[in-house]
Design a protein that fits this description.
The protein has 244 residues and is an alpha/beta fold. It has 7 helices and 8 strands, in the order E-H-E-E-H-E-H-E-H-E-H-E-H-E-H. It has 2 domains: 114 residues, Rossmann fold (3-Layer(aba) Sandwich); 103 residues, Rossmann fold. 38% of the residues lie in helices and 16% in strands.
Length: 244
């Protein structure tokens, strides 16, 4: 349980999407965050619709309200983090937390998904990602693969749906040259079109996304709240360079 310090609001920010499965999974996560932090004011806000007055119930005497935007994205260099950078320029009082990933917690959940899918140690593992031309996102994806490799205990390759990395379908074909089954670890947050694209990449096994539409992994809920508290405790406007 979290004790709220006067005037603090958690703005959970994602990318607006018409995909009902994605929207539902994010809603379940936000409700879990509210459940675990009942004394914190939590708002679910699309990143590109963040207003300067969002989450403000009026200033308290001697203390201005503190709003922390936590991007529900797995790396920097996404449309969510870009939108929050614009919001920060428009409202210097806003604090922007680090994105959820890359992080050891996400690597651990990915490994759990691999085990649940039936992956074996002699399988060839490919990290299936959205991909990006943004340098920060490319670095984040590379680090995510290294973290997954460390937790899984074996090499992890990268295949992307878009961007400069090896296309996912090609990465799967290349991985078959090792003579083992190919298992794709989905490095996506929610079900939806991206997860569906990764699922149909031609691998022998493909894991579920980090949020599968059911009860969220408690570690993921805790990670959202950790990012919130990091931004508060650092005491700066933006801590997007932080990594756990």
């Amino acid at each position: 349980m979290t004790t709220r310090r006067s005037g603090e609001t958690l703005l959970v920010c994602s990318s607006p999407s018409p995909d009902s499965a994605e929207h539902a999974a994010l809603g379940i996560l936000v409700n879990a965050v509210r459940r675990d932090a009942p004394s914190v004011e939590v708002h679910d806000v699309p990143a590109d619709m963040l207003r300067a007055d969002q989450g403000r119930n009026g200033p308290e005497p001697g203390r201005p309200p503190v709003r922390v935007a936590v991007p529900l994205t797995l790396t920097t260099g996404t449309d969510v983090t870009d939108a929050l950078a614009i919001a920060l320029r428009l409202d210097p009082t806003l604090r922007v937390a680090a994105p959820l990933g890359p992080d050891w917690v996400l690597a651990e959940i990915c490994v759990q998904r691999l085990v649940e899918a039936g992956a074996r140690k002699d399988d060839t593992i490919v990290l299936g990602v959205d991909g990006s031309h943004h340098a920060a996102a490319i670095d984040g994806i590379s680090r995510a693969a290294r973290l997954l490799s460390a937790v899984w205990g074996g090499p992890v390759h990268i295949g992307s749906v878009r961007g400069p990395d090896v296309p996912l379908t090609e990465a799967v074909d290349i991985a078959r040259a090792y003579g083992h089954r190919v298992v794709v670890a989905s490095y996506v947050l929610t079900p939806g079109r991206l997860a569906d694209t990764i699922r149909h990449c031609g691998a022998d096994l493909v894991t579920a996304p980090l949020l599968d539409g059911g009860v969220p992994d408690q570690r993921l809920v805790t990670l959202v709240l950790s990012r919130f508290h990091q931004a508060l405790d650092v005491g700066v406007r933006s801590v997007t360079s932080l990594r756990a």
